[in-house]
Amino acid sequence: MNTARLEAFSDGVLAIVITIMVLELKIPHGAELSAIVPLLPVFLSYVLSFVYVGIYWNNHHHLLTFGTRATAREMWANMHLLFWLSLVPFATGWVGESHGSAMPAACYGFVMLMAAIAYKILQIQIISSSGRRDELRAALGRDVKGLISPVIYLAAIGLAFVMPMISYALYALVALMWIVPDRRLERVVGEKRAA
Amino acid sequence: MNTARLEAFSDGVLAIVITIMVLELKIPHGAELSAIVPLLPVFLSYVLSFVYVGIYWNNHHHLLTFGTRATAREMWANMHLLFWLSLVPFATGWVGESHGSAMPAACYGFVMLMAAIAYKILQIQIISSSGRRDELRAALGRDVKGLISPVIYLAAIGLAFVMPMISYALYALVALMWIVPDRRLERVVGEKRAA
Amino acid sequence: MNTARLEAFSDGVLAIVITIMVLELKIPHGAELSAIVPLLPVFLSYVLSFVYVGIYWNNHHHLLTFGTRATAREMWANMHLLFWLSLVPFATGWVGESHGSAMPAACYGFVMLMAAIAYKILQIQIISSSGRRDELRAALGRDVKGLISPVIYLAAIGLAFVMPMISYALYALVALMWIVPDRRLERVVGEKRAA
Amino acid sequence: MNTARLEAFSDGVLAIVITIMVLELKIPHGAELSAIVPLLPVFLSYVLSFVYVGIYWNNHHHLLTFGTRATAREMWANMHLLFWLSLVPFATGWVGESHGSAMPAACYGFVMLMAAIAYKILQIQIISSSGRRDELRAALGRDVKGLISPVIYLAAIGLAFVMPMISYALYALVALMWIVPDRRLERVVGEKRAA
């Protein structure tokens, strides 16, 4: 019951984050095809961020089914995650505006890195306050994706100063890697329900 | 229980999409009647899109009562639908700004076409993962409206380059056709409840 | 169960409507007191509209406890109400920008008039589809406030062309009249719960 | 059941308030590091306000578990609180734009002061309408934080005209003081559940 409101609030913030990004797709003043060509990078960065927020929402959804007490620590860990995700529209907009430059590409990676760390902290909080600690830990296993992602983000941040396009390719790679939701958790949730 | 959060998130996104569009109705700097006359096409495109989002929300609502497991596939099919609907404010704003031109009229149709395809994909996902497959399939019947709409959108996209007003008339026609919610699903939902 | 999603969607739209209005309070570029003095009429129109949306949310809340089936007609009647309420930020912003002129004052009244009519239509739909028709009708009694408000709005629209301040005084009067929520419905809801 | 919708609406408004603030972080037109340096005060004021809204959401959440009837008075007390919180993005944006000046610093404190008073009023309403008056009153104890905060806000408003940075330090101090959620209420909620 308590987590319900945590979920509702998170859903609200994520829904707004995902929708606010589209405001960066400024309506062109011309009406020819050429008027929307410059919007293409903005559009592509929107697609990438849409997928990222979708992934977070999806995994968050699975994770919260384990956190049943909504303690103060869990709430703040969740707020911390929402904080970094709320910066995604800013990072996305900057990438859309100056995609060929180093700083926006690095900034995007930084926000994603911080969101990944915040998610990890939330995960640890929920595992430690959950009564089903061992089960959840086993379900997450070695959490390879959760460990590899920050490393890729760090690499992408560094490479942004060499060639921004490599960074974007890496961000897209991480997104692809995560687009399959956490099957481990999904399986446990499924078993829990079946039981 | 699981679909509840899917619905809540979708409702959030749709509520924001529908409300964000009104921001395109820029507050006039003058205070005479003539100051709001140029807003008329913006207003009309807002009305049309409001009705469209309303239709999607409505049918989505009926459709989701059948999808009870919120699998990864269903979630991503739903995200895909929300993605195209999130572009409705952009398409609407462009139409409002340059309604007499071909490209905005075609762009509006393209977004609507993609949303229709995304809805169809979601429908197929939910039918295939639902335990009540045959029943649902029977309820949807031949899904005439679902098959005709994309064809009309395609025609409207082509006709936009001949005469944009015909495209808008066609979009309005599809909206009228759908404004009556999917009675087939509604009937089945009703029977389900009665049982 | 069905109305739950209707309520959730309406809450989402109303929450966004009420919050989007604050965006009209443009952040001043100066930092002296004189920089925010011109914001006073914008602020006052925000307060008035905030109260209006609050009233609608409040009464909507009571009304929907009676509509338990969420038929297509109820859904569209509800959408129709949300449509007019979604125009409140526009009307409010215009009033804030040119409060001394006739048209914005009349426009505000027109939006309020249409919202009041839309609410009345929704009320009739819910009464007619509710199984507790007589009880609800009795509870609403002669609905004096619901009948007087449109008349005052009409008067205010007319008087806007004589002296806009009178219109604003009338809008404030209607708000005050409604700020006390529909005790009639509240009483019936209370009895229903007690039973 | 009744408070559920009050909570849902409040969550919606707070989620939008917290996310709308990020729109003040205008996307820089340059792509160098120097382009985002001027955004630092805007970012810091965003962090502070994010924490404040988080605190309110958190405490609101605990408080509402006690208010189970959603009377008209409670609803309006809640609306009143949301009104002042809806002004946080404005105050934050002004601080971000002119942080070295007295007026924005004082304005921020004023909005926080009014929100604190509104919260206190809501608390009193919920205590008085709750059937568990004595228990709740005992749980809140002397409410030292609730009494000290307005005093600090008042001091900060005054000191803004001497040295704005002191005001900001005081706002940060109050946030730190509250970041630990109301353990008193949390304890009682916990016991209530255990019982």
Number of domains of chain A: 1
Could you list the spans of chain A in which at least 5 consecutive residues all have pLDDT below 50? none
Mean pLDDT of chain A: 86
β-sheet strand percentage of chain A? under 5%
Order of helices and strands of chain A: HHHHHHHHHH
**Total beta-strand segments of chain A:** 0
From the alpha-carbon coordinates, what is the Rg of chain A to the nearest angstrom?
18 Å
Shape of chain A: globular
Membrane topology (chains A, B, C, D): Multi-pass membrane protein
Family (chains A, B, C, D): Belongs to the TMEM175 family.
Subcellular location (chains A, B, C, D): Membrane
Organism (chains A, B, C, D): Ciceribacter ferrooxidans
